[in-house]
Amino acid sequence: MSQRQTPDLARIPAGDFLMGAPDAEEDERPVHRVYVSEFSIGRFTVTNDDYAQFIRATGYPAPAIRGLPLITHGGRDALFKEMATPYVWENGEPPPGQGAHPVVLVRYDDALAYCEWMSEKIGRVVRLPTEAEWEKAARGGAESLRYPWGNEADVTRGNYLSDPAAKSKRGTRPAGTYPPNAYGL
């Protein structure tokens, strides 16, 4: 079980960056320049073990599949249902062997409740990043590249559901499995 008492944070410098992608979904276009103030973000995703500490401390409900299908997008309902099943919590406990994996099936209001609890716990404001903050942090300072390392997906550097070579690795990986970007994420 993770025994982190406070999140390990990375500082993301203030500055502008190109947000969006020209060949992505419509809501990601057009590419446009955005300024983001300096902020800090967790180096790692919130894990099942981290979230379990929150549940035990507060009695908050465990993540659950609520109102399937999870997502309706281009006929992918069955795929998302299939992928969600191994991540179902039972009796307030994370799936066996998944403690170091990112918590999933968490709704926006669940994430806000976690942030509020963590803020009280560490005496510092913890919040969700804005979309622009998230994208700047994820890009790792490499604004002209599709990924922090280049323009091609690489299964040794990230988890790609759509990569045929990665079919045996569907699902999440433990936090910290992949090399960090230039911001340490």
Brief synopsis:
The chain contains four helices and four strands; from the N terminus they run E-E-E-E-H-H-H-H. The chain has 185 residues and is of the alpha+beta class.
Which second-level CATH architecture applies? Alpha-Beta Complex
* Shape label: globular
Report the helical percentage: 10-25%
Biggest sheet features: 2 strands, antiparallel
Number of helices: 4
User: In CATH's first tier, which class applies?
Assistant: Alpha Beta
Query: Which strand order does the major sheet show?
Result: 1-4
Report the count of strand segments. 4
Q: Write out the CATH superfamily name.
A: paralog of FGE (formylglycine-generating enzyme)
End-to-end distance, in Å?
21 Å
CATH topology: paralog of FGE (formylglycine-generating enzyme)
